[in-house]
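Write out this protein's structure.
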Amino acid sequence: MLILSSETHLLGNIQSLMLGGTETIAYTLLWLFLAMAIHPEIQQKVQEEVDSVLRKSKPQWTEHLKLPYTYAAILECMRWRTMAPNNALRW
C-alpha cells in the first residue's frame, strides 16, 4: 500500500509540474501574439529578422544569437505580462 501511495503521489506531482509549465508557456505565447497584433510594426521587424536569419533553412540553436530584436521583443512581452511572480516581499 505504501508503494501505491508513493506512486500516486509521484504521478500527481508529475501532472502538477506538466500542467503548470504548459499553462505558463501557453499564456506567455497568447500575450506575445496579442502584443504582435497590437503592434504590427514590431511584428514586421521580427518577421524580417527571422526571415533574414533563417532563410528557409532548418533552425539551429546557435542562430538565436543572430536574432537580437526578436529576443528583445519576447523578453519585453514577458516583462509586460509576467505569468509567474518574479520577486518576493522584502522585510
